[in-house]
Amino acid sequence: MRNGIKPNPNTVFPIKGIDTLTYVKPTVKNPNIIVGDFTYFGDVDFESHVTHHYDFNGDKLIIGKFCQIAQGVNFVMNGANHQMNAVSTYPFYIFDGWDQEAPPPSEMPLKGDTVIGNDVWIGQNSTILPGVHIGDGAIIGLNSVVGSDVEPYTVVAGNPAKPIRKRFDDELIEIMLQLKWWDLKTEEINDLIPILTCSDLEKVKRTLKEIHR
């Protein structure tokens, strides 16, 4: 490790002298927001970018390890959705003074938890809509609105976000999904960095095959 200092996922500001980039996990207080080690946000106050996250819906935002979340990214949760299978979309039941019960959950537009995999890069000012699942290693282009699931190691962009391309061939994607490098010990990840940052993908493939023989 550099200067004998081991990476610490519980550090709020992981770059010395920079207070505009934060590791997310140590800043989160809401138990329904679960974030893995070393995932960072290009800003402060991550929770303010998780909107319409009401306790009564019980939905969770789950983000893996080593994700890179740019400034201006917002996660819109299920509380933003209005009932569209009735003649009025107005949510009477959430406001004081109306004495009617909310419709049963089966009648509500709840799409479940929002789940972001590991090593996902979400570009600046993108919006992730309720219930979306984004696979490991995916890249979300800036200003994208993601309303449907994203396959692992896939680049998507646009409004609505659409697949642009796979990042690697199927063989390398399968190797990466089996490797799950983000779950290795810090020391093991450190030793793998030259391979994880190598642009010669055939060399990466050969090396990782050797490691896992």
Question: How does this model look, in words?
Answer:
This protein has 213 residues and is an alpha/beta fold. It has 3 helices and 15 strands. The two termini are 27 Å apart. α1 packs across α3. A 7-stranded mixed sheet has the order 1-3-6-9-12-14-15, with no helix packed on it. Strands 2-5-8-11 form a 4-stranded parallel sheet, with no helix packed on it. 15% of the residues lie in helices and 19% in strands. The longest helix has 11 residues. The mean pLDDT is 94.
Distance between the termini: 27 Å
Number of helices: 3
**SSE sequence, one letter per element:** EEEEEEEEEEEEEEEHHH
Quantity of strands, as a count: 15
What key attributes describe this structure?
213 residues, 3 helices, four-stranded parallel beta sheet, alpha/beta
In a nutshell, what does this entry contain?
This protein is α/β, with parallel strands linked by helices.
Write the layout of secondary structure elements.
Elements: E1 22-23, E2 33-35, E3 40-41, E4 50-51, E5 61-63, E6 68-69, E7 74-76, E8 114-116, E9 121-122, E10 127-128, E11 133-134, E12 139-140, E13 145-146, E14 154-158, E15 161-166, H1 170-179, H2 186-196, H3 201-211
Parallel strand pairs: 2-5, 3-6, 4-7, 5-8, 6-9, 7-10, 8-11, 9-12, 10-13, 12-14
Antiparallel strand pairs: 1-3, 14-15
